[in-house]
Specification:
This is ATP-binding protein. It comes from Candidatus Olsenella stercoravium. The chain has six helices and eight strands; from the N terminus they run E-E-H-E-H-H-E-E-H-E-E-E-H-H. Strands 1, 2, 3, 4, 5, 6, 7 and 8 form an eight-stranded mixed sheet that branches. The two termini are about 25 Å apart.
Length: about 210
Amino acid sequence: MGVPVLIIGASGSGKSTSLRNFTSEEIGLVNVSGKPLPFRGGMKSARLSHAQDIQAIIAKGTRRAYVIDDAQYVMSFEEMDTKLSGYDKWNAIGYGFIGLVRSVSALPDDTIVYFLMHSEVGDDGRLKAKTLGKLIDNHYTLEGLFPVVLMCNSTKERHWFTTVNDGGSTVKAPMGMFEQAEIDNDLKAVDSAIRSYWGLKPLTDNEKKEG
């Protein structure tokens, strides 16, 4: 089954920047908000904002890695676009997004789908993925659906991923997957570490031949 991975962080913390070392041939990028990427290179992307459309394009794809950038806007845009109201509205938004996350398990074993999401402070005071309404938070622990959750952090000097939970966030990773508590915010390097840890196929066949 496929592997969902969650990357959370404040706006400007380096989530999109972490894609800089991928090529368009290596990943399928879904740019939910349609904003320009913060690096040069002209990476191709699909502009999709509805959970069912994203789920469909990933299910039909041939890539071994997909990235849903600004994934929290899948919920926000659905709130604005839907003609439903009341409980029907929030149920459609919440279950649509949860369905997108859960659909990753039906993908081939060597497929990783990265959800890049803004962070927020939860009711318990911990940093978590930003959600919409209370349906998801009341019925699910969103991070519980992901085996790997990394946090983006930044200063004026650098950007990095946090791989170890300090008690104030929802960060988690399997024991020994990452050697350090802080690593460069290079999502391609993270992808390699995950594939090595679980024995998944490399990102591309060319990478396998060269290795």
